[in-house]
Description:
This protein is about 5% helix and about 50% strand. It is mainly β. Mean pLDDT is about 90; it is low at about 1-20.
Amino acid sequence: MKICKLITLMLIFCLPVHLLSQNPSPRNQPAMSYHKQHQQMVLFGGSGDNGMLNDTWILEGGAWKEYDGSGPSPRTAHALSYSEINNAVILFGGYGPERQRLADTWLWDGQKWEKLAVEGPDGRSAYAMAYDKKRHKIVLFGGSADSGKLGDTWEFDGTKWQQINVQGPSNRRHHKMAWDARQQKILLFGGSDDTGKLNDTWLWDGITWEKVAEAGPPARDHHAMSSHARGKKIVLFGGWNDGYLPDTWIWNGKNWQKKSEAGPSARAGKPGMVFQQEKNKTLLFGGGDAQHQTLADLWEWNGRKWKELTLDN
């Protein structure tokens, strides 16, 4: 029996690091996306209790695994988006530990990171990014640069970035975007500009920005938002406006509807949120709460109610 236990321990300690991982540490502003081919939830970086992070976590098969290879440098206030044309998750920019705005583009193919040799938007953080499934392009809007808040629109076609010269939402940061399958457009909500917190809703069709839905969630930034129900709805949770918000809202393609079900604690810090396609559920991870704690809890939205998940790693 003792020999068997010794062999078991030796095997465990010889396993790759990513198989020994528990759960991601608590963090604000983690970036999350879904890799369609590998059916994996990808989480990268954010800001933890001890500074900025550059760890990559994969959630698949009901367990977190940490990638132990090289990849992007530590950062926060960045975003990830899955590109069907690349069959990969794309990362751009963010805010680095030396207080620098980053402008690098990276590709996660499901197994490793690759830095792409492409020129694109100026270095920035706190922008929003989403994938246009109709036109097969990643859309990026706004954010913060050394010069201030931005209001420019960019698209990535899988090979190169291109700026689209168009009038649209005001210069802003800490807003969110998601794919609206009913409208076949990208939806943008909220954030903050030079006037304060915002509650405006916009749709991007690849040519013009259109302001829609005068009524909706109260003004906020640092919220979480993602497609849901295979893109036919969008779910929004939490954020900040003179306090941490605990509310859940659903966009049905025409208007916003508030849901009153109990769920995650009030939080901001742009919790990670992503649609888990094979299960038709949306997952939320982390953020920060009113007690100034960074969080590492994982929640699941099934379209009707929230459920906290406890993973046995």
